[in-house]
């Protein structure tokens, strides 16, 4: 299948990624791929998990542990600035979800195929000419790390690639599904964190300036920094849409802010199935990957209702908690589908011809 997958990837680059890059920045309006060769080494599937519980009977959900280490040749240019760059090799490691839905009674038995990563994959790109690209006006604030984040997030839920296999399938509902629920995250406090700041060339241990990074899919929140405190109190609230469960997790990392490189203070990963089951979790969690430290979280699972019958009750409830979030707590979710347009004005392109 690999040669045909490569054809699909090339089409994806030219028809989806290239226009998206051009529209992202005025300086990139002449951006284009001049060569796309993914290479002959196919990706490896190191493991497959199939979900049989808590899933719709008209769908099949697979989680694939994928690993791709390939020598490729991808060349790109920005004609406006006579700037060229390229990619010599790519590594991707992560969990890709594949959803086969809807199942139908005729061949090919599957109406459509959806692909996405549940969380940001490990992505490494070996660039050529990247320095020249980052010298372009308007792009000199970027870095290879920021570019990797942009590419990674394009692949992560709620973004997805949906391929229809039959003509009758409702592709918009598959590409933009209604969220399964909303996760309200009360990021409260931590205790007994490691002191990373040192004085007198490391002889004296100091405190830390902790802050948290919270992720649900490609939704990322960052807390405020608490200066010189190993028992910080944030008391902040965030709300994240949950599109897939089982499988999605809440990821939290704590860091000590430093002038050069921030120090790691611990991490936490919570399966959202447990939160949905309990509806409300208010616990102290022991931090992973560090010798000490605990994090106090209150997690609420909010179910979406199809009507506004309970809206007054919800509004009364959040008024009581109105001081918990800087921008207020949500009471409802608005989903807008952009369907079509008619009678748009004609756009004329005037071309100047240069005669030699």
From TrEMBL:
SMART domains: C2 (SM00239). It is a peripheral membrane protein; Multi-pass membrane protein. Belongs to the extended synaptotagmin family. Its main location: membrane. GO terms for biological process: endoplasmic reticulum-plasma membrane tethering; lipid transport. One of its GO terms (cellular component) is endoplasmic reticulum membrane. One of its GO terms (molecular function) is phosphatidylethanolamine binding. This is ESYT2 protein. Residues 1-166 form the SMP-LTD domain. Keywords: Calcium, Cell membrane, Endoplasmic reticulum, Lipid transport, Lipid-binding, Membrane, Metal-binding, Repeat, Transmembrane, Transmembrane helix, Transport. The lineage of its organism: Eukaryota, Metazoa, Chordata, Craniata, Vertebrata. It is found in: Cell membrane; Endoplasmic reticulum membrane. The gene is Esyt2_1. Residues 165-285 form the C2 domain.
């Amino acid at each position: 299948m690999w040669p045909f997958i490569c054809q699909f990837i090339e089409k994806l680059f030219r028809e989806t990624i290239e226009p998206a890059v051009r529209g992202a920045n005025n300086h990139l309006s002449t951006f284009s791929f001049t060569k796309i060769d993914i290479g002959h080494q196919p990706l490896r599937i190191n493991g497959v998990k199939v979900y049989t519980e808590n899933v719709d009977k008209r769908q099949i959900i697979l989680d694939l542990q994928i690993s791709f280490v390939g020598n490729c040749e991808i060349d790109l240019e920005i004609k406006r600035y006579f700037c060229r760059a390229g990619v010599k090799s790519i590594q991707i490691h992560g969990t890709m979800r594949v959803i086969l839905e809807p199942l139908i009674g005729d061949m090919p038995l599957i109406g459509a195929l959806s692909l996405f990563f549940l969380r940001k994959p490990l992505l490494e790109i070996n660039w050529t000419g990247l320095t020249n690209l980052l010298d372009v006006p308007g792009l000199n604030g970027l870095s290879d790390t920021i570019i990797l984040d942009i590419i990674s997030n394009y692949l992560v839920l709620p973004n997805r690639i949906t391929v229809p296999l039959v003509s009758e399938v409702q592709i918009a509902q598959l590409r933009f599904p209604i969220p399964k629920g909303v996760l309200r995250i009360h990021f409260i406090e931590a205790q007994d964190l490691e002191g990373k700041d040192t004085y007198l060339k490391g002889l004296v241990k100091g405190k830390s300036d902790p802050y948290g990074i919270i992720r649900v899919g490609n939704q990322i929140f960052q807390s405020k920094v608490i200066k010189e405190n190993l028992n910080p109190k944030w008391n902040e609230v965030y709300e994240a849409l949950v599109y897939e469960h089982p499988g999605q997790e809440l990821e939290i990392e704590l860091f000590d802010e430093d002038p050069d490189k921030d120090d790691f203070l611990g991490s936490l990963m919570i399966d959202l199935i447990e939160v949905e089951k309990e509806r409300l979790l208010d616990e102290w969690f022991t931090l992973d990957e560090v010798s000490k430290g605990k994090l106090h979280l209150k997690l609420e699972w909010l179910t979406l209702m199809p009507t506004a019958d309970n809206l007054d009750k919800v509004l009364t409830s959040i008024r009581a908690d109105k001081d918990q979030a800087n921008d207020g707590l949500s009471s409802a979710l608005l989903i807008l589908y952009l369907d079509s347009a008619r009678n748009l004005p004609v756009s004329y392109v005037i071309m100047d011809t240069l005669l030699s």
